[in-house]
Design brief:
The protein has 371 residues and is of the alpha/beta class. The protein contains 12 helices and 4 strands; from the N terminus they run ββαβαβαααααααααα. It has 2 domains: 92 residues, Transcription Regulator spoIIAA (2-Layer Sandwich), CATH 3.30.750; 220 residues, no CATH class. The protein has a 4-stranded mixed beta sheet, covered by helices on one side.
């Protein structure tokens, strides 16, 4: 027959305040509503006497210790088993009640900054190693052209280039309108609105055409590269390729990088032309400059070096965008959530790196006389 936990109130040794005497089994299956009945007492006792307890487990010990702690009571009549359990519960309570003090703010800040710099360093080394593998992949294909996956290359050229013509064209056209309109507003103050053509033509052909195209490709194609390869990593398709002797670098990365480097110069030039057309469109309406006059004047004021500057930067930006997307995709592991994180990181890394490199290119070309 199961023995339930009970309690009684008995006089203390000095005949004063009574003591709370527990008896029976203080185990999880026999406690019943003991905690509710104890809570209903006023708690004005001398101590808790558990000498009548025949068996006790961690749940029962915690219940007694918690009640004693709340009412400031001592526990007497402990058996050896109860003593061990109360000691363990006391250690846990002390550990929870006294957490380790937080380190000073300056120390925490330095530690977090150190972790960040260390992470950057590891990421940089991995990126360099990935770039080295890509170079080896290109070298292998150069020695054995038959290993180049032509179908995949054409598919990615279509995805990166042809399928993005409409969004890049619309974006560039509107940017050309904004440049021409805002430039004209400022130049009209000096009676030099005719130089809106110079501003729009050179800025679009030299800087904004390829820069905005790279940003759009990073958001559209770079993110897709990371998501596609990352999903293949999760489904173990990449491991299956290695198992059957197919190089993931040659099969997945090289076609995407090569397609981006081929299509980016064409997209950049296309973007610059559409921006100039947008500037000519708004100038016809706002500045009374005929459309064809704007285009003819652009040919006269935009030097050929501006065209070459955009064409030189385009393959480098394409390499950065494709490399960031493929690298982050190959780093996916663990769960589907990682795909989203790596995709976001690929876009952010590509855009940041492209903008930084564009600033270096601007200084470099100015220093060598391509102004």
């Amino acid at each position: 027959m199961r023995e339930w936990a009970e309690f009684t109130l008995s006089e203390s040794d000095d005949g004063g305040v009574p003591r709370l005497a527990l008896k029976g089994h203080l185990r999880v299956y026999s406690l019943g509503d003991l905690d509710v009945r104890l809570a209903a007492l006023d708690g004005n006792f001398a101590c808790i006497d558990i000498s009548g307890v025949t068996d006790i487990d961690t749940t029962g010990a915690w219940l007694v210790a918690h009640y004693a702690r709340e009412h400031g009571l001592s526990i007497v009549g402990q058996s050896e088993q109860a003593h061990r359990l109360f000691g363990a519960i006391g250690d846990m309570a002390a550990h929870e009640a006294e957490p380790e003090p937080a380190p000073p703010l300056l120390l925490r800040t330095l530690a977090e900054f150190g972790d960040l710099v260390t992470g950057w360093g590891r990421g940089f080394l991995k990126s360099v190693a990935f770039l080295g593998e890509l170079v080896v992949g290109f070298g292998t294909i150069a020695r054995h052209p038959s290993r180049l996956r032509g179908t995949a290359l054409v598919h990615h050229m279509q995805y990166v280039g042809v399928n993005s013509l409409w969004i890049i064209g619309l974006m560039s056209f509107l940017i050309g309108i904004v440049i021409a309109q805002q430039g004209a507003v400022q130049l009209q103050q000096f009676g030099a609105e005719i130089y809106t053509i110079n501003l729009t033509g050179r800025l679009a052909m030299r800087e904004l055409g390829i820069l905005m195209t790279s940003i759009m490709v990073a958001g559209r194609s770079g993110s897709a590269f990371a998501a596609q390869i990352g999903t293949m990593k999760l489904t173990e398709e990449v491991d299956a390729m290695r198992t059957i002797g197919v190089s993931p670098m040659e099969a997945l990365v090289v076609p995407r990088v090569l397609a981006s480097m081929v299509m980016m110069p064409l997209l950049g030039f296309y973007s610059a032309v559409l921006a100039i057309i947008g500037g000519a469109f708004i100038s016809t309406i706002a500045l009374d400059i005929p459309f064809w006059t704007f285009l003819q004047r652009t040919q006269e004021v935009v030097p050929l070096t501006d065209v070459w500057v955009g064409l030189v930067k385009a393959p480098v930006f394409a390499l950065i965008v494709a490399l960031a997307g493929c690298y982050q995709g190959m780093q996916v592991s663990g769960s589907a959530e990682e795909v989203g994180k790596r995709t976001t990181q690929a876009v952010v890394t590509a855009i940041f790196t492209v903008i930084v490199l564009d600033a270096f290119f601007a200084i470099f070309f100015t220093e060598i006389g391509w102004k």
